[in-house]
Amino acid sequence: MMEVEEGNFDEAYDVYACMQCGKCTGSCAVSLRSDLNIRELMRIAILNENGELEKHEEIWDCTSCGICTVRCPRDLKPAEVIVGMRSSLVEGGTIPITVRDALESVGTNNNPWGRPKSKRAEWLEDLDVKVKNISEGEDAEYLLYIGCTASYDPRIQSVSRAAINVLTKLGVDFGILGEEEPCCGSEPRMMGETGLFEMLVEDNLNLFDEFSISKIITLSPHAYNTFVNDYPECAKRLKEDDAEIPDIELEVKHYTQILEELIDDGRLDGEMMNEFSETVIYHDPCYLGKRNNIFEPPRKILNIIPGARCIEFDRREDRSLCCEGGGGRMWAEGTGTGERNSIIRVNDANRDEATVIAVACPFCLSTLEDARATAGYEETMRVMDIFEILDEVLK
Amino acid sequence: MTVYVLAEHRRGELMDVTFESISAARRLNDEVVAILLGKDLGDHAEKVAKYADKVLVVEDERIENNTEAYTQVIGELIKKDKPKVFLMGNTSMGMDIAPALAIDLDSPIATDVVGISEEGGRIKVMRSVYNGKVLSDLVLGEAETSVIAIRSGEFSAADLEEKNGEITKVDSPLKEAIENKKFLEFVEPVAGAVDITQADVLISVGRGIKDKDNLPMAEELADAVGGVVSCSRPVVDYDWLPKDRQVGTSGKTVKPKFYLAFGISGAFQHVAGMKGATMIVAINKDIKAPIFSVAQYGIVDDLLKVMPALTEKIKELKS
Amino acid sequence: MDVIVCVKKVPDTAEADVSVGAGGREINKERLTFAINEWDNYAVEEAIRLKEEDEGTVTVVTVGGKDKEDILRRSLAMGADKAIRLDMEDPEDSFVLANVLYTLIKDQKFDLVLFGAQSGDFNSGVTGVMVARMLGISHAAMVNGIEVLDGRTKTSRELEGGLNEIYEIKLPALFTIQTGINEPRYVSISGIRKARKKELKVMTPADVGVTEVKPMLSLEKMYLPPPGKIAEIIGGSPEEAAAKLASLLKEKGAF
């Protein structure tokens, strides 16, 4: 990722290798229901016609699921080209108002939801378990990074509470940052706010250093992805520009990976759980699956739950259908018409007679939960984060 | 001692805030003199005189629809009579006139006032500050006349005592027509074009509306109350309303004076788009719906029953 | 067209829990975040829009300590040419503030002065119009549209119920800007970095010759309203509840 000056998309993203085969558009999660045509945008990048990007409202339709990058036969990164185009629009200041407000909120409140920083730890209020707060000087092996959505969205806050309950029961030594927890920057980066992302990387690495944090567990695959894939590269670049970046190596894991380790170590097994008499279908989040090839850990967890009948979507793993929650789409409705992917997803799950859709990402939970109600499955189906399922079954 | 009250009118209609201003003025236990300026005043003077102790009428075409002329004429009347207080609505007109008048008269001013009293010869007001989260009591500085602009809807005019005051015509003190600031015209909101971010009243419908065929019911209510229909995301998903009506983080952020949420559960993303509304009313069958935690008023019932009843009642009250 | 825009930094209290400090003089601000007053942001955007349409300069002005400079930097990044910070404690009394701003503005070159129609802290909405009066120039409050003609403007004021009124106003003039007049652009972090080179002038009260005036209002006390009720439920049959709601809406001025 870099700042793209007018007229150098071609160099910035090496787009000359693009042969306009169209595999990106063909695989795109939203091209069927929106004007987004990634091949056309690649062509614009090749020709450096980025002066007219304002006209391409569909640039904000991309969910950044990354399937185009997975499928590109030339190993190009079309999804990153879109980030670059958004970045160019962000610099010009002409962006959808909802995106503008989200980005401004990250600047002032350290979260894109427009909620005050002082209420970031609100979700802790109904919790009986005592949690260590690293920002108050308590030591812990891991930082449990909650993230903005799971801190503020009342539906997703339940995942944060479930995470505390489960990790505490399993004897994991962890703490949180409470009100001091910052935005990870994943969504701002995907919305093209390069400068803001860099600022967050610098601030956050210094914050982690201040509290001697080196091991992080994330609830969100988006936070996981950015800590693992974007931070090191960005930190390196900032250092070259003489920014004060501490020399810390972060060991970051998505929570399903930690739970998998616990299973392997014999610290988590089916005997610790009550029966869960449900037909469970697992929905792969793009940022865990397509972007990071983490397919096994969530399945392994679900498979040890006694009574759970685990089934699979036809479109799964790296072909999983994106829920349309990422890439800033929580703040940009997009040009799309017709059925949302999340509706297709819950309909598929219903057809397969699933009673629980298991997810491992706050955005997936939010979009699928909404779709479940819209499609009328309130009585017959639940959408649950894996942490919520464990919280329910663990004795 | 007297309190002057401005009778605000526009396009042949006397504004309610006139009577609310009289109601506020009554808390000061003084003679209430209403002033009525402009042209084509119809029976405004009689209507105001019913509740005021006195009405001063200045008929002058040059004053009509010109806030600068208003300011100068009010200033002249005040200089002559030296009322203790000049009081008007904190309306758009009030925001243009009152602060200018305060400077012209060297008067202290308090605007957007929600409470008023007199203590030991000093005027004390209550204002709500910091987004309505805090109340503040303020005492106005000593002066011949104080200027106060009251918030609309805060001082009930329901129980005003009848006075049938005397109506006096006064010669216009306006020296010359205002050349620097000329009123040109009124512009109506464009018919048909719907901008939910600009509406004062939103009738917002959610999943609970159940069927596209029920939408005219919402339109009818919106027409009755002079508002606009907006919605939550599912209604757009069902293709019942266009996308530009959608309230929420991925739709539009709205801050109307009144937000009536019908059958909207109040998902986080929706609430984030409307929580800035001044008054939120939720109508929902489910008492546990999160919308009730952001609403000031709620009705726990079937919207399909409440909505048409509300439309009828509003029509009744209007006629 | 040379435009001066007066801006203020205010705490964001829309969603935060607000408490009043001991003595009831002020709210506790430690846990609040601060940003440019929402109405002022629209005013800055409007000034820049006018400059981009025609030519001229945009100068943003604020009163306060160094911690207020970020809103000036932000405005410079949006496209303002120059910023002035008057280095003194930001007066809470509108009349005192108006007097300070008047003193500063009267010696500047301008065709138009813009203010936000009100500020999100005290919501008085008087400072701009007071300054206009002190300067002896025309003004319009609650402006939601400006069209510049030769030496004049066609100015739209927002009235109640979606109605607008149009005035022809001679320049120089002062307008207080209502939200919704435009769509303020996003100011990126790198934009703010790039705008560091632009001029930000710090002046002292002595520089501009600020004289002391008496505040108009004296604060007796600040306090929290009685504990907020979570949705007062209107009971009765659908017809009864609707009737109660209709009266309530009428009373509050919905129709």
Please describe what this structure looks like.
The complex is a heterotrimer of chains A (395), B (319) and C (255). Chain A is of the alpha/beta class and 395 residues long. Chain A folds into three domains: 9-92, Alpha-helical ferredoxin (Fumarate Reductase Iron-sulfur Protein, Chain B, domain 2, Orthogonal Bundle); 97-258, Glutathione S-transferase Yfyf (Class Pi), Chain A, domain 2; 264-393, 3-Layer(aba) Sandwich (Rossmann fold). Helices cover 42% and strands 8% of the residues of chain A. Chain A contains 16 helices and nine strands. In chain A, the strands form two sheets. Chain A has a five-stranded parallel sheet. In chain A, strands 7-6-8-9 form a four-stranded parallel sheet, sandwiched between helices. In chain A, α11 (221-240) links the parallel β4 (215-218) and β5 (251-254). The longest helix of chain A has 20 residues, at 221-240. The radius of gyration of chain A is 21 Å and the shape is globular. The N and C termini of chain A lie far apart (46 Å). Chain B has two domains: 2-169, Rossmann fold; 201-318, 3-Layer(aba) Sandwich (Rossmann fold), CATH 3.40.50.1220. The mean pLDDT of chain B is 92. Chain B has a nine-stranded mixed sheet with strand order 9-8-7-10-6-1-4-5-11, with helices on both faces. Helix content of chain B is 25%, strand content 29%. Chain B is of the alpha/beta class and 319 residues long. With 255 residues, chain C is an alpha/beta fold. Chain C has one domain (3-208): Rossmann fold (3-Layer(aba) Sandwich), CATH 3.40.50.620. Chain C is built from seven helices and 13 strands. Chain C has helices at 38-53, 69-78, 94-105, 127-135, 189-194, 205-208, 238-251, and strands spanning 3-6, 9-11, 34-36, 58-63, 82-86, 112-116, 138-148, 152-158, 164-170, 173-177, 199-203, 217-223, 232-233. In chain C, the strands form two sheets. In chain C, strands 9-8-7-10-6-1-4-5-11 form a nine-stranded mixed sheet, with helices on both faces. Chain C has a two-stranded antiparallel ribbon with strand order 2-3. In chain C, α3 (94-105) crosses α4. Chain C starts with a strand and ends with a helix. Chains in contact: A-B, A-C, B-C. Chains A and C meet through α5, α6 and α10 of A and α5 of C.
